[in-house]
Design goal:
Largest sheet: 3 strands, antiparallel
CATH class: Mainly Alpha
Distance between the termini: 37 Å
Protein name: Citrate synthase
Keywords: Acyltransferase, Transferase, Tricarboxylic acid cycle
Pathway: Carbohydrate metabolism; tricarboxylic acid cycle
Number of helices: 16
Order of helices and strands: EEEHHHHHHHHHHHHHHHH
Low-confidence stretches: none
CATH topology: Citrate Synthase, domain 1
InterPro entries: 2-MeCitrate/Citrate_synth_II, Citrate_synth-like_lrg_a-sub, Citrate_synth-like_sm_a-sub, Citrate_synthase, Citrate_synthase_AS, Citrate_synthase_bac-typ, Citrate_synthase_sf
Number of domains: 1
Bound molecules: acetyl coenzyme *A
Organism: Streptomyces roseus
Structural class: mainly alpha
CATH architecture: Orthogonal Bundle
């Protein structure tokens, strides 16, 4: 008698594993919504910290709630001496994602309440991460350039403070707004690979820092968050806007994945892309240097060629990569910028997972040798 092989869903494609009240892509509008609000509207009218509050609490804050939330976030920004020393001791050559992963793991080791459960404790830890991760990213950026860190400024908003800590100045409001839009759009996307990783870790009743550390590891890969960095490497490899179509044909023939294109959920275009592209176009118009114009032309040529050759549309990483470059960020920082934002979504999911937990433990179909006796002797 032959055993029936169960249907296999490689990559868990199309598998529904749980319910969530945090976000969804509404089919009728192909639009991502956080707690029911379309991201396009949030990106147009709200700040990133309001969005983090929304993801964690289920509702937008009123004026008083937002003021208190901001005061707490600003107070939590500074790193203690031990963390600063630990990070300063890491090899300068290590990838900024490794620095972030190490930092979050260390925050867990330092926090005596690491294993405490309960929503209030989770929200406090989540806010601590939201406040401190930009400080880690900025300090690491400066360390790689051989520069001293710049302390966070409690008088500056979340996005402004990040520029201040990286570059010692805050750019024009339009640039800050474009960055804030990217943070809002990156903040949450349901059961994506890194969020699912965080939920798997949480489902074993492990702690929040372990879940976020694991999620950072999952985001690092180039099929997920690492794609924004990979987009810029790819554009540098192509080099010339005139070469984009030929380069693409060769790459597709070699069965290469074109970074920043395609999506597991969106098959007819990522609903976050138009708003990010518009904001990026404003940066391009503002910069207007020959180098910027050429990079933007190459970016546009590749997008058109990919849509016409394969019908595969860009995902958020494609315009975000160009925007981050125009803002002056080094390419290896791109995925850490994604982490600074997505930590809001991860931690919302960690809290939701715990609220109605079930251990996540799928099955696999065994394809190894048939049962056999262990050789005797030796
Ligand atoms: N380049 C070339 N071909 C592609 C791409 C791409 N970027 N995306 C999809 N395809 C092709 C596949 O080769 C496949 O073709 P086939 O049926 O002839 O084999 C078909 O489209 C279906 O693609 P899958 O890989 O099955 O789609 P899946 O849902 O598994 O993949 C993924 C989604 C991993 C995002 C894929 O599109 C990809 O590798 N993109 C490049 C990396 C990237 O940009 N990742 C960022 C994701 S979004 C985010 O994290 C914010």
């Amino acid at each position: 008698m032959t055993a029936t092989i169960p249907e296999i869903h490689r990559g868990l494609a199309g598998v529904v594993v749980d319910t969530t009240a945090i976000s969804t892509v509404f089919e009728e509008t192909n639009s991502l919504a956080y707690r029911g609000y379309p991201v396009q509207e949030l990106a147009a009218h709200r700040s990133f910290d309001e969005v983090a509050y929304l993801l964690w609490h289920g509702e937008l804050p009123d004026a008083g709630e937002l003021e208190r939330f901001r005061a707490r976030e600003r107070a939590l920004r500074p790193l203690d001496r031990t963390t600063a020393e630990l990070l300063a001791g890491l090899p300068r050559t290590c990838h900024p994602m490794d620095v972030l992963r190490t930092a979050v793991s260390f925050f867990g080791a330092e926090d005596p309440t690491e294993d405490e459960e309960g929503t209030a404790g989770h929200l406090a830890k989540s806010l601590g991460l939201l406040a401190k991760l930009p400080v880690v990213v900025a300090a690491d950026h400066r360390r790689r350039l051989g520069q001293d860190p710049i302390q966070p400024d409690p008088d500056l908003g979340y996005a402004e403070n990040f520029f201040h800590m990286c570059f010692g100045t805050v750019p024009a409001p339009e640039v800050v707004r474009c960055f804030e839009i990217s943070l809002i759009l990156y903040a949450e996307h349901s059961f994506n690979a890194s969020t699912f990783t965080a939920r798997v870790v949480t489902s074993t009743l492990s702690d929040l820092y372990s879940a976020v550390t694991a999620a950072i590891g999952a985001l690092k890969g180039s099929l997920h968050g690492g794609a924004n960095e990979a987009v810029m490497h790819m554009l540098r490899e192509i080099g010339d806007p005139e070469q984009a179509a030929d380069w693409l044909d060769r790459a597709l023939n070699e069965k290469r994945k074109i970074m920043g294109f395609g999506h597991r959920v969106y098959k007819h275009g990522d609903s976050r892309v138009p708003i990010m592209q518009e904001a990026t176009d404003r940066l391009v118009a503002r910069a207007a240097s020959p180098e910027t114009t050429r990079l933007a032309a190459l970016h546009s040529s590749l997008r058109h060629a990919m849509i016409s050759r394969k019908g595969i549309h860009p995902n958020l990483d494609y315009p975000a990569a160009l925007a981050y470059r125009l803002m002056g960020f080094d390419v290896p920082m791109f995925t850490p910028l994604f982490v600074m934002s997505r930590v809001a979504g991860w931690t919302a999911h960690i809290t939701e997972q715990l609220a109605h937990n079930a251990l996540i433990r799928p099955l696999g179909v065994y394809t190894g040798p048939a049962q056999r006796p262990l050789p005797q002797g030796v």
